[in-house]
Known about the structure:
- The protein is mainly α.
- The chain has helices at about 10-40, 45-60, 60-70, 75-90, 160-175, and strands spanning about 120, 130.
- The termini are far apart.
Amino acid sequence: xxxxxxxxxxxxxxxxxxxxxxxxxxxxxxxxxxxxxxxxxxxxxxxxxxxxxxxxxxxxxxxxxxxxxxxxxxxxxxxxxxxxxxxxxxxxxxxxxxxxxxxxxxxxxxxxxxxxxxxxxxxxxxxxxxxxxxxxxxxxxxxxxxxxxxxxxxxxxxxxxxxxxxxxxxxxxxxxxxxxxxxxxxxxxxxxxx
Length: 194
């Protein structure tokens, strides 16, 4: 058969040589697989070499030891996980956006720089920025009414008790006279000059 003489133990010799070649090929394949797998899981060249030598010396028990001690995830899996975590953290962080155009805005902006939507208003007393719906300043506890837009800026000077009283009298007069109240309108010029 195919010119091979299997007489005088030739079949046994052929089986032993064939088995030896298969075992050596599997042994080399284990060493190469362990080295490549460790390379995908760690950047440390010494640990890659150590595990390859352990498998080369101990064969199947060395492979079992490697499988027990190898890092759980590959470098690419670790990188993808860190990207996912970073993306989740960015989603958790509150990013203020304009209700008009959806562009990102800063917390200290009174109006959107893109679509000119009014975002916040200034307190009539302390000039801190407030949400448009707030009727009371949480910083100075002053009431914010429609007349708040007409009052001058008192943040630079300390109001004397007389001035405070006269200011409150003006406020009460304006509240009684609906013709004296007006709403402030901010006029924005939309130009394409950049």
